[in-house]
Amino acid sequence: MRLPDIKPYLVTRRLIPENQEAPIHFISAAITPEQYFYRRNHFPYPVISEQSFLLSIGGEVKRPLTFHYQDLLRMPSKEMTVVLECSGNNRGHFRPRVYGEQWEGGAISQGVWRGAPLRDLLKLTGLHAASKEIVFEGHDYGKRTDLEGEFMFARSLPLEKALHPDTLIAYALNGKPIPYKQGYPLRLIVPQWYAMASVKWLRSITVIETHFNGPYQDIDYVYYPAKDSDAGKMPVTTIHVNSIIQQPLNWSVLTTGMHQLYGIAWTGTGFITNVEISIDGGERWEQAAIQKYPGNPYSWTFWSYIWAAPKKGEYTIMSRATDSIGFVQPPEARWNRKGYGYNAYSTVHVKVD
Predict the structure, then answer these.
(1) Which domains does the chain possess?
(2) What pTM did the predictor assign?
């Protein structure tokens, strides 16, 4: 009798709006299959109409233009492997606890995105000399609990990041049109930044001369280091250096003998150069083997380590990553009251029996 294929599922955090984690501990492919891509939404999914295939660029530009989906397909394109990580990934690990979706470790996925560089579109419209930020608005909208009225999901990028050659208006994921739940038909892709910047269901681009102060720019996606005040607040931007132990799972029971520990590491600054493993709760560290992907500057890095479990007992296994800029994954994440940017050592507890 043939045994059935056993496959993982997304982990549901909320249904309306839909928020689901990728089964990150069971993904061994460099490219996350569509059905395992994590889903992060603020509102119900938007209705896709013919208007959804138009993208307008206006504001402080010399020639306001509207591009059709087909126009973008005919433009010079670029294809890149990019990690997308929700800035709230691992929020459930913060202590003291914080409010919000209690993501564990699966609000992260990696795909091959194809699209037209944003700066090519902006060259066609032209920018005024006083331009400061570029605002991106999606088709998704709804109500907030803290403000009256309805809001579109909208965020801005500083001019320098918007004009980076790898900031894309994407229309394809893993060789196919972007799936509906990942932003079809058009999505902004901003490598190295947390994924709130990669606006889905993109409808308009507006160039402005001032700072954009929408609620998803100046209220959410801001680090608030103080519990009861806004002192020291800073915007959430670049992905922190990070790693995760995929196997073994936390609180696993193992046998004595040889075990392969493995996982992934990633960063928004440079690339991963080193991953270290501790078997004794951080007292001693040893090098893991890392598997790089040349030519993919925005992709995650697989790592592995062979552990000869010597004797029965309980062990605390940790991983920490270092990137090419010199940033090292810290023993504790910087607490902030909205729970963004968690990147403390990945830790699992196992018992050898």
Answers:
(1) 11-220 (3.90.420.10), 242-352 (2.60.40.650)
(2) 0.96
Q: What φ, ψ does residue 283 adopt, rounded to 5°?
A: -70, -45
Give residue-wise pLDDT tens across range 180-199.
999 999 999 999 999 999 99
Instruction: Say which residue the tokens 């994407």 belong to.
Output: 170
Which has the closest alpha carbon to 242: 258, 256, 263?
263
Tell me the two tokens of residue 338. 């909205």
What distance lies between CA 344 and its chain's CA centroid?
A: 16
For 180, the token pair is: 């509906």
3-class secondary structure, 154: strand
Which burial class, exposed, middle or buried, applies to 283 when counting CB atoms under 10 A from its CB (0-12, 13-18, 19+)?
A: exposed
The dihedrals phi and psi of 137, each to the nearest 5 degrees, come to -120, 135
H or E stretch including 177? strand 176-177
The backbone torsions φ and ψ at residue 71, rounded to the nearest 5 degrees and listed phi first, read -60, -45
Residue with tokens 């993982």: 8
pLDDT per residue over 132-174, tens digit each? 999 999 999 999 999 999 999 999 999 999 999 999 999 999 9
Of 255, 300, 273, 251, nearest to 85 by C-alpha is 300
